[in-house]
Batch of 4 targets.
Target 1
Amino acid sequence: MSRRLEVGEVLRRITASARSLLGARYAALGVPDDHGGFAQFVVDGVSEEQWRAIGPLPRQHGVLAAMLHEAVPQRLADVRRDPRFEGWPDAHPEMSDFLGVPITDGDETVGALFLADKQGPHGFTDHDEELARILAAHAALALTNACLYERSRELTLAGERARIAHELHDAVSQKLFSLRLTAQAAAALVDRDPARARGELAEVARLAAEAADELRAVVVELRPAALDEDGLLPTLASHVEVLNRAHAARVAFTADGVRALPAAQEEALLRVAQEALHNALRHSGAASVSVELRGTPSRGAVLRVVDDGRGFDPASVRRAGRRLGLVSMRDRAAGVGGSLTVESAPGKGTAVEMEVPGG
């Protein structure tokens, strides 16, 4: 449970682990919202078709409400005979013996674990309840950690949006302002100096092309990375395909022996690849850029982005580093236990390589 960082995956792992550990036919985990219902409700032991037929997420009533509001375990020989029981939807499976344990973080109830139909002749025991308590304590830590991780990702995304907005203002809006002034100058010269007017119009065309390139780069960065749904390889391949269509330079992607990686590592690799590609296509004047992702014997991965552009002098890395985001890329690599190296020379292109360790 502790290795998973997405809240949804943590909830599913907790629920499946509880059902297996306690030998129950059914297990569920509910995370309450602030409106008398559940923000999330995960089940195990019920098929997807059954779950769809049951209908909307349950409300906090009956025994479920007691679990969340009283924050004490509930062990019942037959939940249907409890005076708090208020019935089930038509498609809900029949259940009898019941064990519920709250998941608490300090004084706050962050969820509740429900188990039903012990697979044995005597129902849930004192030992089962103790196991469920221990599991709930671990679940609280895992769930809190996952929530903090997702909050951190949200803040990171907010920072990315602010950076892109700043870049949009600094680059594109200034280009458009220059373009407007140049167009006005051309209009004023049309009658009295047509030759100069033609020169100004040529400058308008150049500025418009640059603004289009700037805007295209920003829009590409704003495309959502479908890491959660698709994983790193399809997401990176799709990003490279978009760039290859959007730019004159040829952009190619190859992959070999890459296994699934922790979510934080996959995100860092994607962001470094995006930054390196952005640099190659915007600053280097490259005719071709290659992106390679390969697995390592230690079950980690190596990302390599190589361009044939003008390159730069590593001795001037302080100035170039700010412009090319090298500090940001190194921070991303270090943040997931990886390393980043940059090889370049004037007229020799640039190679950016990031390696992340295996688990």
Target 2
Amino acid sequence: MPDDSTSSPAEELTPLQRAALAIKTLRAKVEGLEHARSEPIAIIGMGCRFPGGADTPERYWQLLRAGVDAVGPVPADRWDAQAYYAEDPDAAWKMVVREGGFLSQPIAAFDCEFFGLSPREASYVDPQQRLMLEVAWESLEDAGIAPGSLAGSDTGVYVGFLSSDYGRVPFNALPTRDLPYMGTGNELSFSAGRVSYVLGLQGPSMVVATACSSALVSVHLACQALRQAECSLALAGGVNLILHPDNNIVLSKMRALAPDGRSKTFDASANGYGRGEGCGVLVLKRLSDALRDKDRIHAVVRGSAVNHDGPSGGLTVPHGPAQEKLLRRALRSASLAPSDVRYVEAHGTGTPLGDPIELRALDAVLGAGRGAEAPLLVGSVKTNLGHLESAAGAAGLIKVALSLRHGEIPPHLHLRNPNPAIDWEQLLLRVPTQRTPWPEGPRVAGISGFGLSGVNAHVLVAEAPPEPPRAPEEVPRPV
């Protein structure tokens, strides 16, 4: 007969021992939840199309390292730059600029059959959707992932998007049979939905429209979704194309654009921003999963934060106290001290009002615990490319990931006479105008993005962990 008196080990414990075991078990659960809530996120793939022929991360790094100014004349296939130009910003339906950061690749070039679109449908699809498809695919290839292998997976897609210049044809001027293509080709949400559809992804899929901070907010939301196990892989980034003159004209009337088309960030001549276009996509994965799968890791997102300016001096006016709160929240989310951050990729549009506010906020928060011998380094890729608006955060984040990997900070351009409205003697920061080795110690950087609508984002990124040594694989060679 079996012995019914057999007891489990837990039943043999005293009440005090059982209480201690329960506390230990609960503590382990809490620690597990805390780790999941704040787990670093690995960047395992990157894809890009930026001005100056920077259509791969490698070419982008070469452009940055060489200090290339990629701003140039408006391409002839966009609009007649001279016909729309006027020196007077108040001139009716004219703009003050004739240059910008434009892609060198033809916008019309698209292999529609590769992505399963008919030529007729593709002709109605916003080129921003088409570009996002291409760069998303290339970012997965960079991650060593066959895009077709993700069908049915919970992979998420987060696309930063601002506006469409494409779908402005009166609908009643189109053939009735083509109206469905016009709708799906130009409605905002399809920029993410089309990527998920083409790749067969079943995770979260959304467009984030917070103006100039859209791409960084997309990364923030993707990291949150990964930590909460809403997805196991995520694509995040932003896209922006300048196809028609309308927005340039509006921004000219707002006195937001620099007449020479260049963002002269932190310089005394800063007089507005130069517009740019492009697309950047990052492939994100929980760090523990990336280490388990032996993925190549470009960099690691340690933490991030998003907020709004609130009651600032105006809807489009930046707000220093809100930026300070944003930075402190991002540091808490990453469990970092202010002095851990060695470099900040600033929003840095190059405006007389915004630049001083941003640098004062950076110094107020990240200057804590920092000596004069170790100033915070600050730069902005907008001086190379122009302001890519909804793709700007992706350009900044990819720049920082490349900079961390190569151990070098690229030069910041157009800084000849530092802005006198900035108290350079008092602020513990420096703008590197030449290639600069990373300061000694842990490599940590921040990337800022401030939306014209008041939505701010900051992402903190650290260098990738050292790769474990790998034994060479034995490859059978029978012949």
Target 3
Amino acid sequence: MKTTSVKPRKRTTATRTQLDPDRWVEVANDLLAKEGISGLRVEVLAKRCGVTKGSFYWHFKDRQALLDAVLEQWKLGRIRDIEKTTAVTPGNERDQLHYAIEVYGASRNRKGMSIELAVRDWARHDAQAAAIVEAVDLYRLECTRKLFVAAGMSDAEAKSRSLLLYACVFGLSLMHYTHFDDNLADLKQRIAERIVSS
């Protein structure tokens, strides 16, 4: 009697994507930049990550836990950025202030600015987000205030210049003014000089 051997079927198991909490926050930031806080829904995030909602709940208790993580990452990132932007060797404070204005006034990082605006919009409706935004703003103001003081200004003058600096760069980020002047680089340089000069 002839026996036929049956080949065992290959077990096909789909490779499951393993995501850590940082990856969820990264995807949440992408979504935040495009759709704002209302776009941060668990099912949408899971779909973007190619996983089930169960994977989300493995890392986060609920949506609020993710939102807390997004805010915390934003805060730490902004603090790290301003520390880097305002770090200076003594005697170069004015140059560093010009650099800070250039960095914050540039529109190179569209995603970063979109996230910044989305977090600020979120803060209009959420007390926790508002507290985080205020902490970041105060930290930014304090870092540049110290630069102005080190450049020789009184504390009162340094505070007003620091506030003026941020009002200017963030205000410019919201405006469409490309046709206002034929030489925008020169215009921005003159504005920066007014903010920084004694």
Target 4
Amino acid sequence: MTTPAPLKPLPAVDLGLRPDVSAHFDPQTNTISYIVKDPASNACAIVDSVMDIDYAAGRITYDHADALIAEIEARGLSLEWIIETHVHADHLSAAPYIQQKLGGKIGIGANILIVQDVFGKIFNEGTEFQRDGSQFDRLFEDGDEYQVGQMRCFAFHTPGHTPACMTHVMGDAAFVGDTLFMPDGGSARADFPGGDAGVLYDSIQRVLSLPDETRLFMCHDYGPNGRDIQWETTVAEEKAHNIHVGEGKTREDFIAFRTERDAQLDVPRLIIPSLQVNMRAGEIPRDADGRPMLKVPVNGL
């Protein structure tokens, strides 16, 4: 059984500071990207952008990212941060494309080094692939604070789905990545390399230790039971109604459920291109001749 890691006290959530959150849903990957605006200025951040890929054709496009860029430009906003909540296995990040157009710093959790080491071996990356997180502008440690305009923000480790997962709190809004889904969606899988169901349970409890009124924003939603796509809930709603961890479900119950459930899940459709790109902060790897090129490890995952 996994021993829960000691928890670090979290900075206080400013429930009186309510950033404007604009959600952009990508139906191809069921990902929600966010533009988060500081209420006191024109500064903003993007959380979990998407780069479009037709994997069968080997073609990259930027329609989703262009929609984010168009909104920021139309509203006269200034992009300061491009946040990745984790190394996504189901969609490709558009962070460098957006940064080239609008500026801003790309940030991810400091445990990206673990992910780069694990998948650097799986994809047989050479010594030219740096495993020190240098592809990103900021590696967030647990409890690190930063600013979006005048809005104080902080990040804290919420591993279990992946080692590098972090939750980002901006004012009264927390962006949880894949740590949680909507209450009727439950939680994400924990069977990727470096994942751990017990650690994920502990991370969820950490998210649920935030004030009940904290707004929670999901990275994915799949419309369970045919309902419309949703992405916003609260800590109180998750504690009361989350089908995997709510209503007093124990750590042991969660581990047993998650282990059985994960064994039945298919590998994500875009995991092979996503991991190669996202561990590079959204850059597409290139072959010896400088051409964009993706690898397919056979029986490697």
